[in-house]
Design brief:
Keywords: DNA-binding. This protein is α+β, with helices and mostly antiparallel strands and 184 residues long. The chain contains 5 helices and 8 strands; from the N terminus they run αααααββββββββ.
Length: 184
């Protein structure tokens, strides 16, 4: 466990959340001086204390302890990306293109829209992020807030994820959509 990396991550999380050391220390029931030493990599701390600090900063303890420092560059070769399919009835699968940082406000993804005959998803969904899409292959109907919009290769759209939306396949070729989620 690299104390300096852990400290840097906690400090980064605290600054990102716009909290002072005193505010975080008070939330955790520790002294400001102990938090300062943890952030500067000057002291070991019990996992229980790190857990309290990570909870106060709303970051996963596993991220704090993983030992990998944040980097400015992430290269993710195509062969290393994995397809995620949580549920056959979802109507799509996706692959995360880059997860630069726990704090990144942008999440680029390729969404593979299931071909029409196999797509069982008919209910729109919502989420808190804004969404930008670019049709890479094929075509879809973007159902957004009660209206359908035909989109084909090269078309783009930007919309609020809080409104009901759904990618509807138009044929049995399916579609590939570059989706960028943007967190406010």
């Amino acid at each position: 466990m690299n104390l300096e990396t852990i400290g840097q991550k906690l400090k980064q999380a605290r600054i990102k959340s716009k909290h002072t050391q005193q505010q975080v220390a008070d939330r955790c029931g520790i002294s400001k001086s102990l938090l300062s030493k943890i952030e500067n990599g000057q002291t070991t701390s019990a996992v229980a204390t790190l857990s309290k600090v990570s909870e106060a900063l709303d970051v996963p303890l596993t991220w704090v302890l993983d030992g990998h420092p944040e980097t400015d560059l992430v290269v993710l070769p195509k062969g290393d990306r994995q397809m995620n399919v949580d549920d056959e009835n979802m109507g799509y699968s996706f692959e995360l293109l880059a997860n630069r940082s726990h704090f990144s406000r942008i999440e680029p993804t390729i969404v593979h829209v299931t071909p029409k005959d196999y797509n069982k998803r008919h209910e729109p969904y919502t989420h808190s992020q804004d969404e930008f899409i670019y049709i890479v292959e094929g075509a879809i109907e973007l159902f957004y807030d009660g209206e359908k919009h035909y989109m084909e290769k090269g078309d783009t759209s930007y919309f609020k994820g809080v409104k009901p939306h759904l990618f509807i396949p138009v044929d049995n070729d399916g579609a590939k959509v570059l989706t960028v989620f943007i967190d406010d």
